[in-house]
Every structure is written in C-alpha cells, then in structure tokens.
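[recover] target loaded
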C-alpha cells in the first residue's frame, strides 16, 4: 500500500510564522508595528473563540491586535462607520470583520466598506475580482492557505482535475478561481449539483468547503486523490469522513491542524505585507 501523506498544516503555519518574525522585527526597528483590527458584532461563542485565537497569534509575533467588539444591536450604518474609522487610521494595516454577523446587518455592505488596501481577508468585491484575474494582493485567507499547503508539499496543480465542494464567496468560489489560475481543470459543486459522488470520483484534488460534518464519504474519493478539508464543525471534525477518505487518498489534511492554522498564518502574512506597503509609502 502506498504511504499516506498527512498534510500537516501546523508545520506549514509554523514555518510561515518563523519567516514573518524577522519582517515584523525589521518593521518595528523602523518605527512601524503591524496592526490588525478585528471587529466582532454580537456574542456568538464560536466567533469570540476565533477572534481570540487570531489575537493571540498576532501577539506572539509582535503584531498589534486591536479588537472592536460591538453590541448585537449594532446597525449596518454603525458598523460601516466603525470600519471607515479604521480605514482612516494610519496605524491600522488590516481589518477583519468576523463573520457571520447578526442577520439584521447587511454583511455585504459591511465588507464593501473595508478599504482595499486593508482588506487582508479578501472579502471585498474588488478583492474578489483581483483574485479572479490572478493579481490580488490579499486573496481570501483560507483559499490562499489551501494553495500554500499544496505548494509546501509540492503537490502538482497544473493539469489536474480539482473538484471544489462549496461555492461561498470567501472560500469555494475564490479557491476555484485560484486553482484555475494555476492551470487546474476545476469543477465547482454545490447543493444543486447532480451526482456529487460521481464527480468526486473523477477528482485528482478534492477541496471540501461545504460546512457539514463528515459529509464527504470515503467511497466518493478516487484512489490516490489529494483531499483538502477546509471544514471545521462542532466536535473538531471536518467536512470529510477522515478515516474513510484516508484509506483511499494519497494525501489529506487533518482536522484540526490542517487548513485552519495556515489560514491564520496567511492572515498574519497579509497584515505584515500591508504594513510593509504602508511603511514604504510613508517613506517616499
């Protein structure tokens, strides 16, 4: 039996952070502290956990984490005004709006209020368009993490058939475009797709981004496929049936310690990138 490759996201993220340390130190020596502002609306426990994790990751690298916690009753107008204030603050380099936001808020309007130069999570329509054309400064972090894992383990993309399960504007759609820009043939599946198992059995690369625990079954995976599980569900399980898919895949990301750590590392990288650009502009 061919040896299985476990795609260790913690290892990839660790090396990314080591590279970032020197860049953060150089910025600090020149008088700039990279700053990521995170906005949380309401009191969703999972969102609070995610924001806290991102804040802790920032502090460990010397990146300032500025947390804005707004009441659940915040209106769309109040949220967009808070975002515009951060846009105008030269000490803030990246803005992250934790989603989902309460239902009464127009999330898309809030995302669009983020200045493109501070859109470090790639959530704006302009950021999405730049990603589609292959020149986004800050592509969506989870799709970028998936590509980073493939590159780290030198898994070929060009000429491969990738099947993406999920079409959200910050995961399924952008990762489909990124794979297409790397010369993969891409099939994007969703809730209306006919014969999903049959399509998955044709895939060289499977990206699970559907948000349903253990949804993708082992017998849906072709022998030797590469499986990247971008899901994270209650109970620390992903969107694929890990043990069953492991039996058939040649390489697979675990959950946890797969795509998640690299997503956070990518967010930190984008924040440092933005801080470097701001420092270079200020020094002209």
């Amino acid at each position: 039996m061919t040896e299985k490759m476990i795609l260790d996201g913690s290892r990839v993220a660790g090396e990314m952070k080591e590279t970032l340390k020197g860049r953060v130190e150089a910025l600090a020596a020149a008088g700039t502290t990279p700053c990521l502002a995170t906005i949380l609306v309401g009191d969703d426990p999972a969102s609070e956990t995610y924001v806290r994790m991102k804040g802790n990751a920032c502090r460990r690298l010397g990146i300032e984490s500025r947390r804005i916690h707004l009441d659940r009753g915040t209106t769309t107008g109040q949220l967009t005004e808070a975002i515009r204030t951060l846009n105008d603050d030269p000490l803030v380099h990246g803005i992250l709006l934790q989603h989902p936001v309460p239902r009464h808020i127009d999330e898309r309007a809030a995302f669009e209020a983020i200045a493109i130069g501070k859109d470090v999570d790639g959530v704006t329509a302009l950021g999405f368009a730049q990603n589609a054309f292959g020149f986004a400064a800050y592509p969506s972090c989870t799709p970028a993490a998936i590509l980073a894992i493939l590159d780290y383990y030198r898994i070929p993309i060009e000429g491969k058939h990738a099947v993406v399960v999920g079409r959200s504007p910050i995961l399924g759609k952008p990762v489909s475009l990124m794979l297409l820009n790397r010369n993969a043939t891409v099939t994007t599946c969703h809730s209306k797709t006919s014969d999903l198992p049959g399509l998955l059995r044709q895939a060289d690369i499977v990206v699970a981004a559907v948000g349903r625990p253990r949804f993708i079954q082992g017998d849906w995976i072709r022998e030797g496929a590469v499986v990247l599980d971008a899901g994270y569900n209650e109970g620390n399980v992903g969107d694929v049936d890990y043990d069953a898919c492991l039996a058939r895949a040649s390489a697979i990301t675990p959950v946890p310690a797969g795509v998640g750590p690299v997503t956070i590392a990518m967010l930190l990288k984008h924040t440092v990138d933005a801080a470097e650009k701001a420092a270079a502009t200020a020094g002209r």
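[recover] notes: Residues 141-260 form a domain with the Rossmann fold fold (CATH 3.40.50.720).
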